[in-house]
Every structure is written in structure tokens, then in C-alpha cells.
Amino acid sequence: MMRGAAFIVVAGLSLASARLGAQLVSYAPVDRQIAAAVSSLPAPLRANATVLGYRQDGRLVTLRRGSNGMICLADDPTQKMFHVACYHRSLEPFMARGRELKAQHKSREAIDSIRLSDVKAGRLTMPSKPAALYQYFAPRDSVDAATGAVNGASYLYVVYMPYATPQTTGLTANPLEGGPWIMYPGKPWAHIMIQPQKTARIVP
Q1: Which of 30, 71, 76, 101 is the most exposed, having the fewest neighbouring CB atoms within 10 Å of its CB?
Q2: Cα(9)–Cα(143) distance, rounded to whole angstroms?
Q3: CA dist., res. 93 & res. 79, Å (int)
Q4: Can you give the residue ranges of every domain in the chain?
């Protein structure tokens, strides 16, 4: 499950379509999208984070511009899981490229291959210092449509350290409940995984 959850981060989220199956999707009001998106951050970082979210036509846009170097991504209701994430701005080229490729219906393997080629060719720059990502996710049916509250949210924290390995960090590459451990060691998108074991109720 942890590896599957991490792919949400590594691949990036798709640009939303206006429909989920045959059902018309309703996007949350802007203020609720912002409140939910920043709730994955530690409290002191929430007020000044930039927030990306969705218009009613499903287009991903900037809902709020911030000043503290953190970028938050609102939940996309066309996806199977509820998911919000916030990451350091140095990761934006990597995340944006992932969203672009995902929107083209590229497979996980293709996305990894293309981004690796982009990094090697200098078209995509990874952060030169550790960069944090905060996120939580939950089953879609755990979201209260009337209030936006989320029950049973699971947190996942990530620290990107490009090319890090067990040898350079002393961390295991095997999944470790509660973390920390390294996922994709030696890759440009190598990162430390930390997944708290408890779940929480989130009220935006």
C-alpha cells in the first residue's frame, strides 16, 4: 500500500476531466479546496502557501498565490482516492511534468522513463537540497460532501533526496512501518518515506 501511495507523488496527479464514469463531477468551492489542500501542511506553513486547484470545468489553476515556497494541490474529485499534497517549490518542475504526462495517459513506466531522460538531458531539474512533501489520502466515500470533512485520512510524509541510497544515508530501502526508509534509491526522485500508522479526521 505504501508503494502505491508513493506513486501518487512520483507520477503526479492527472489534469481533471469533467466526468467520472457517467456521473458529472462537482468541484468543491474555492475556499474549501484551499482549506483542504493546506491542511496537509504543518500549521505554521498553511497561511502563506500557494494553492493549485480546480475550476468547475476541471481545469487546474492557481487558486491562491503564496510566499513561503510551498505549493499545495487540491483534491481532484475525478480520482478514486481523496488526496491532497503540499511540496516545496523546488519540486514543481518534476511534479508539473508528471501531471502533464499523466494527462497524456502515459503508464507509470513511461512516466518514469521520460522523466529520467528529461533529467539526463538537462530538461528537468531536480532540487539540489532535500525537499519536503506532505500529503494525506482517504477513500472517496469517506468525504462528507456537505462539509468537506474527511474521515480516516492517512498521512504520508516524503523528503526528496535525489540519488540517495542506503549507503549514503544509512536508511533501509525496505518498507518500514512508520518509516523512515528510502524509495527509489539511486534515482533522481529518490526520497525518504515516513508513513504514520494512525489515521485522522480532517475538517477543512
Answers
A1: 30
A2: 21
A3: 22
A4: 2-17+25-202
Q: How many angstroms separate the CA atoms of 19 and 85, rounded? A: 22
Q: 134-158 pLDDT, tens per residue? A: 999 999 988 887 787 888 889 999 9
Cell 528537468 locates to 124
CA dist 72 and 81 (Å) reads 17
Q: List, for residues 23-81, the tens digit of each pLDDT value.
A: 577 899 999 999 999 999 999 999 999 999 999 999 999 999 999 999 999 999 999 99
Residue 3 has a CB neighbour count (10 Å cut-off) of 11
Residues 6+ positions from 136 with CB-CB distance below 8 Å: 39, 40, 83, 84, 150, 153, 154, 155, 156, 200, 202
Q: Which residues pair with 88 in a beta bridge?
A: 70
Q: How many residues does the chain have?
A: 204
**DSSP per-residue codes, 77-89:** TTSSEEEEEEEEG
Query: Are residues 160 and 125 in contact, defined by beta-carbon separation less than 8 angstroms?
Result: no
Contacts of the segment 54-62: beta carbons below 8 A, 24+ positions apart: 54/16, 54/27, 55/27, 56/26, 56/27, 57/18, 58/15, 58/16, 58/17, 58/18, 58/25, 58/27, 59/15, 59/16, 60/15, 60/16, 60/99
